[in-house]
Specification:
Largest sheet: 4 strands, antiparallel
Radius of gyration: 20 Å
Helix content: 25-40%
Strand order of the largest sheet: 2-3-1-4
């Protein structure tokens, strides 16, 4: 079920994606609301689950995390119990920053950010220990060309 939001809510979400550090006063001015009216909308968006947390973008390379690997996983086991156990296993590996169950030739796609090939090998060993996986393959990113792009909160809706 999707939350019921209007164009003012969409403007709020659009501005927050651009700069989540805006004060409520500044954000209210940008979308044409008083600070109190904005606060009520933010509270409703949080309670409905549309707004979830606040994050800063960290440059991984500045921390020595210079390798991004997209790992594709295929398994023969597709039960809900197995999938839940695998998700919990993967969640314990901090270098896995995203995990998706996907359709097509592969079952799961993981995004791993780590320190070079030796770092990836350690993650690979940890990933494959204790789980029977049919195929695991990694695609190494040579250059990140677009990342962290805001979603289009107006997709298909007139602004």
């Amino acid at each position: 079920m999707t939350a019921k939001i209007d164009n003012i809510d969409r403007r709020i979400l659009d501005e927050l994606q651009k700069d989540a550090s805006l004060s409520q006063r500044a954000l209210g001015e940008q979308v044409g609301l008083s600070q109190n009216a904005l606060w009520r909308r933010l509270k409703r968006l949080e309670e409905s689950g549309v707004l979830q947390g606040s994050h800063m973008h960290i440059d991984a390379k500045q921390l020595g995390l210079d390798l991004t690997v997209f790992v594709m996983v295929r398994t023969r086991n597709h039960s809900m119990e197995w999938a839940d156990a695998f998700r919990k296993h993967v969640a314990l590996i901090p270098q896995v920053v995203e995990m998706h169950r996907i359709g097509g030739d592969w079952d799961y796609m993981l995004k791993i950010v780590t320190t070079g090939m030796s770092g990836y090998d350690a993650v690979y060993q940890r990933l494959t220990t204790g789980f029977e996986l049919d195929t695991v393959t990694g695609y190494f990113a040579m250059e990140t060309m677009l990342e962290g792009r805001p979603i289009d909160v107006f997709d298909g809706i007139a602004r």
